[in-house]
Amino acid sequence: MNEIITALRARCPSFGGRVAGASQWAVDRLSEVEDPDYPAAYVVLENEQGGETTINGQYNQHVDVSFAVIVMVGNQDREDLRGQNTLEQIDSIRGELFKALLFWSPAERQLEKIVFDGAECILLDPARMAYRFDFKTRYRLDRSDTYQVVEQESYPNFNAANLDLSGEQISVNGQILLEKEK
User: Fold this and answer.
1) Residue 163: CB partners within 8 Å, gap ≥ 6?
2) How far apart are alpha carbons 116 and 157 in whole angstroms?
3) Cβ distance 22 to 43 under 8 Å?
4) What are the backbone dihedrals phi and psi of residue 97, each rounded to the nearest 5 degrees, phi first?
5) pLDDT in tens, 162-171
6) DSSP string, 67-113
7) Can you tell me the distance from the alpha carbon of 31 to that of 160, in angstroms, rounded to the nearest whole number?
8) pTM of the model
9) What CA–CA distances, in Å, run from 140 to 30, 59, 61, 164?
10) Is residue 28 over pLDDT 80?
11) How many Cβ atoms from other residues are within 10 Å of residue 6's Cβ?
């Protein structure tokens, strides 16, 4: 999430650098702050959901990641109880968010490109509005992420084996030399 926070600080001028993580959202939401600096944004990891696992000699699983950007805007006109002025601010910020995040990957080799997943108003009072924008991305787990790799790396090196294959009419003695893959 740090990469996303950094990107929003750099790419969304409306926030003026006022982008933080979920813990700051909780502090600001619960405290009564007079005339805070708005607009501001908070990045919240919502969910990681593992998909079907394919085990066909190799471990393979996609994990869907959902996160939200909660945008707080102030209502300059305390008489605007329906939030029309704040919605205009949200409309402007929406474009900045989309240009900052859509079809971008914070970790190119690990995460797929970010896509939009929906939005909704989660708080509206005479002083402010909180609007949550939901986004999704995905990453893949494979054999290198499993305990199998840890276990196999703990085994001692296997360099040679002596075989004695005996059958009804077959008797073979031999040695197989193995080299470790590089």
Assistant:
1) 172, 173, 174, 175, 176
2) 49
3) yes
4) -60, -45
5) 665 665 655 5
6) EEEEEEEE-S-TT-TT-HHHHHHHHHHHHHHHHHHTT--SSTTTBPP
7) 68
8) 0.78
9) 36, 10, 6, 43
10) no
11) 13
